[in-house]
Request: fold
Amino acid sequence: MSRVRAGDERIAKQHEYIGELDRSLIDLIQQRTEAAAELASLSRDLGAPGVDLSRENAVLRLYHSALGRSGTSLALLLLGLGRAGERAAAKDPPAGPAHR
Reply:
């Protein structure tokens, strides 16, 4: 096998691995978004604000300490998705016998 062909196969395998990681990250982000929406709903049901800014700041610090400036940007995106998920959940109540 030529060196170029062996390199092509290693590159293809690495692309495949990164694709698997991307799919896992997307799944985790969707789970996080759903959990954030549920937490906001529970908080509101108990009379607390739907957003806890001190908790959001802790998330920003966590991501920044682990990943630097890019981590802060990532955390802001995740927090924004959580809020968007919260808004979507509020607009679309779960389907079922009680909501027909």
